[in-house]
Structures
1.
Amino acid sequence: MAQTLSEQHTFFWIGKDRGGTHVKGRTDGPNEAMVRAMLRKQGINPIRVRKQTRLFGIGGKTKGKVKAADIAILARQLATMLQAGVPLVQSLDIVAKGADNKALAKLVNTIRDDIESGLPLAEALAHHPRHFDDLFVNLVAAGERSGALESLLDKIATYKEKTEEIKGKVKKALFYPTAVIIVAIIVMGILLYFVVPQFQSLFQGFGADLPAFTLMVIGLSEFVQHWWYLIIGGVVAAGYGFFQARQRSRRFRRTLDRLSLKLPVIGGILYKAAVARFARTLATMFAAGVPLVEALDSVARAAGNILFEEAIMQMRDQVSSGQQLQLAMNNTGQFPSMALQMVKIGEEAGALDAMCSRVADFYEAEVDNQVDSLSSLLEPMIMAIIGVLVGGLVIAMYLPIFKLGSVV
């Protein structure tokens, strides 16, 4: 019992004061019964008391594995239920109870509790910047101000679904070659550490000089055997340093983003994906009635590539000073001519959101086609690379056996 009393939890409650007025708030206590007793001492008759399901860590960020795809599904579910006339709090409660992901359920419960305590949805979402970016929060706030929250949530859901789809295609393009190369390196390491030494002991009784290629492989094998822990430690340290530098250094990320766009084949996919993301985000913001300068500010933060982010911020400054969007885009030198022409037509026709949506659709389809082409192109290329690496080791080990005939 002493242990129970020492544990404090936060409870959300709704009740009536002595005048019969509905009141609500939060109170810390060991359990629900104690909280009810504390409220009665304050002259409040508790109607509902519920322990808040919060997962706050350092800095108030919600912990747990809530993926971007989960947020897209959440937006779609809320939009569907609100369009059907289900109240927001009840919609959140339904989503939380039906979520298979416990971390998502706790996140939704936290948002529901904040709304029940009087916060608007946008402010409740803003408490979780790890899962809800500025664009998401700004669109929800615009929907609440205009009284069209369900419509804006539907646009957010469509935007999230499209962006997650394009991210999935890019990951597909990068994952397959990376995974195969890693497997090839692991196989080579196993051969060098376990297999080559067996051949080396066999070669010692040959009584003849070994081929230079075989000696090179044996030397590499001996290096791996003696310094394997340094090799693994170096790879881990390099990987850790790479990700730390990418997170902490803007200059390093800019260099990476610039180099990634120049990669053969894959660079074109990343470039078109960035253009599609820009167009999709701008179309969503503009269709929601967000002013262009403010929309560009949100689009820049959601760019996902520093080169595009800086180009969009440059565009924002020029548009705010009276420049047309198409001319501002052209001045950055970052956008393809097709996108420039479509945006120009959209500005002249007063249908910028529709034209940006078409640009996004076009480049998303381009990414899809290039990813499929890349997969068919990489398969024989990767097989050839693996054949050269692994086959080279095998040939190096069998060369002395071929030479044995001349010795005999």
2.
Amino acid sequence: MTQINKLKIFNDPIYGFITIPNALIYDLIQHPYFQRLRRISQMGLSYLVYPGANHTRFHHALGCMHLMQKAVDVLRFKGVEISIEEENALYIAILLHDIGHGPFSHAMEKSIVEDVHHEAISLLFMNKLNHEFNGQLSLAIQVFKGEYNRKFMLQLISSQLDMDRMDYLKRDSFYSGVAEGNVNSERLIQMMNVVDDYLVIEEKGIYSVEKFLMSRRLMYWQAYLHKTSLVAELILMKILKRAKELTLKGIELPCSDPLLYFMQHKVTIDTFDETTLDLFAQLDDFDIIGALKSWQKNDDFILSSLSKMIVNRDLLKIKLTTDKVTLEDLQPMQERFAAQNSISIADTNYFIFKGKIKNQAYSKEADPIRILKKDSTIEDVIESSDQLNLKSLSKLVTKYYLCFPKQLL
């Protein structure tokens, strides 16, 4: 019988060669649940703005695992005891942290998989895999849920300076071409240590932390909350909402069976059983894009018009402002658009709507980024930094938007 070599390497454009540390990790990567991430875009519809932003969540998960390997090496070198079991748990938890993302996940979470956060679905996937792999993921699940007694392990996976953020900023910056988002993840990891079971950054690494926080702020404004990416995602949410509305009225829409299931059923975390999970595992970007291409020709004016907008990148106009947008601002446009297209005022809400976006690079309320001073005291990075602009990064910035069809200009 031929033995498969499971200690393979991936050639990554960001870090070079990424090694698979053991056979269990290899088997998890090979699992259909994980392979699905090859068909889930990391930056959603951002490729409509940045043509290079076509990388996947598969890419990102491997990058996170690679950074975790570096972090374990550094911490062990500095005398932090991490057992083989704990090391493996860290690799598994970070590898699977995004496995619950659906296609264009934020649009999905707010339309057809209502209010079921991707982290909750990730946990469902991890529990199912744990059953399949005879309990080998139990410790990873404990760490992921924050139930393990070593706090720093959760901080490596989910905190204001974790492997997830370090990879997605560097990776998204690289593929989008937004150079301002590039972070020095290698130096940040080299400066890590553990004191009293908390992850800390040695004082000489403070400038790298400042650059990391600034990069995060800039990536949000320039990429993740770029107004074209934002309006495309909002349109997609409206499309999925309309499709679900029509399906529940008994109108048949051409789409894949897994997508049809989520349009026919109200799915909550309580009803997310094993059957639902298996159907969710069959959903990827291609289900959505394929459906949009079919729905362009649908008799429903709303569904066809909105679908054409995404397929042909002929989007709604979006205006960002620091002032709140009122319903009175919308009313004249709604009346004109309703008259022009013979639709009801209620239906114009699919084309003319308002909302707000928020950006906060660093939260003072969340678990802080701890700086280890030379005198062995520990301070929040905001207190340690001599950069005045770092304090401003902890302020919540809110912007308001108004979306409407271009012909109303």
